[in-house]
């Protein structure tokens, strides 16, 4: 598949490559599409079910939830999603 993108998006892709966050233009596009796919999935989810799952996770005895552990989880997710 070959895709042509507008110049302003090409500049965005080049900036991501220059920053070292991605090795190839394809990796930038895959990350963007994966993010979009995740947003679509989230939008399609039943919000009450999401709330229920989050509350169950918070109440889970596996990890004590405090400011430090929440920061660790957020940092971990940022690192994971930055590599997509």
Structure notes:
The chain is an all-alpha fold and 84 residues long. The chain folds into two domains: 37 residues; 39 residues. The chain is 74% helix and 0% strand. The chain has four helices and no strands. The protein is elongated. The protein starts with 6 loop residues before the first helix and ends with a helix.
Rg (CA only): 17 Å
Overall body shape: elongated
Number of structurally distinct domains: 2
Report how far apart the termini are. Answer: 20 Å
Mean pLDDT: 86
Largest sheet: none
Strand content: under 5%
Helix-strand layout with pairing:
Elements lengths: L6 H13 L5 H20 L2 H13 L7 H16 L2
Protein name: Putative transcriptional regulator, CopG/Arc/MetJ family
InterPro entries: ParD_sf (IPR038296)
Write out key terms for the chains shown:
84 residues; mainly alpha; 2 domains; 0% strand; elongated; ParD_sf; Putative transcriptional regulator, CopG/Arc/MetJ family
């Amino acid at each position: 598949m070959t895709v042509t993108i507008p110049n302003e998006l090409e500049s965005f892709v080049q900036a991501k490559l220059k920053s070292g966050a991605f090795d190839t233009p394809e990796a930038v596009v895959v990350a963007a599409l994966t993010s979009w796919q995740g947003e679509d999935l989230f939008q399609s989810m039943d919000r009450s079910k999401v709330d229920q799952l989050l509350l169950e996770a918070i109440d889970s005895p596996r990890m004590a939830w405090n400011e430090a552990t929440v920061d660790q989880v957020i940092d971990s997710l940022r690192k994971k999603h930055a590599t997509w």
